[in-house]
Predict the structure.
Amino acid sequence: MESGGALCSNRRMFRPLALFIGLRYTGAKRRNHFISFISATSMIGIALGVTALITVLSVMNGFQTELRSRILSMAAHGTINGVADGLRDWRFVQETVSKHPEVVGAAPFVERQGMLSNGKRVSGIMVRGILPSEEPKVSDILDEMKLGSLDDLQPGAFNIVLGVELAAKLNVYVGSKVTLVAPQLSATPVGVAPRFKRFTVSGLFEVGMYEYDSGLALIHMDDAATLYRMGDEVTGVRMKITDMFRAPWVVREAARGLPDTYYVTDWTRKHANFFKAIRTEKTVMFVILMLIVAVAAFNIVSTLVMVVTDKQSDIAILRTLGLSPGRVMAIFTVQGTVIGVIGTLLGLIGGVALALNVETIVPAIEQAFGVQFMPADVYYISELPSELHVGDVIWICGMSLALSLLATLYPAWRASRTQPAEALRYE
């Protein structure tokens, strides 16, 4: 009984033996310096891969947020339209949806296609009729104005506000006259002709999205109704939500309080393809950069295979002393995992530090080498935005550790299959 008790005690004492030997092998100065070199290479490769992944995904998150904010600076979070061509009871709809606690503001609008011309210069555009007093509730147009003011859009004045790209395309500026041609036809003594009206350019805006800056014109809602013969109807009511990501639910909840049937949509549906493309690009980039981590992680395989070969006699002695194959396998699993953990931690520190300071580091590099990665005259976003997501960091580090652990399994299994007699035959 005493010997049995002593045996149990020894087993408890040497329970972390695999961990102890694995850490000792990892920190020992090996006779084979080539093995140490490959271990260091694997560790550095994992660190670089994790750093690159965290940084690139953070920059892509920043671009996605920046693009979304620019799109939604002019596009509403949600829209309620009439089932027919126009919405007649828009005042009641505006008042009703504004009562929802998550609706920041609601404003009517008229939206129709048209053609704008100045001499021989012609451009197809989207005409949006707005109420200058209501529009700031649902868009950031006041912040985007470069010249002029929305207050100049008075009913009957037939003033127009253009995007800077559209103004450049038509070669007009504030005070210029342009002709707006509507697709509706009018009967004249000489036959049927399209409706058109002369407008005065009263302001210019710049959102930073080519779609808006080159293809959108703002006029007063009453002028739009007159030009397009809409009477008291509007196209719909635009809404702004406290949390844009809850727009699909809030817009539908707000519309449930309306007695009639309306067509309800939100920004996630209008721009679904664009944001799906960004999400797909982010996923593909994650997979491509994760291959860097995978290559570095599987270098651990070659490292441990050579370590196992180098330590054949040690393994044989441990086996003769009673160490089980499972614990031999655990020794080399610990050794490979330590390489993966250290590499992942170094990558985590480097990636987070780089992602949080990329907006400072990139301008410093540009200034030092006299280059500009994203010229302002070519790209609307001339700086690299960065937005670090904790979920991305956890996912990257988890994948890195999983690949490192996976890479240790075969060499560790091979070590556990070592036969003591065969290993010690030529010692």
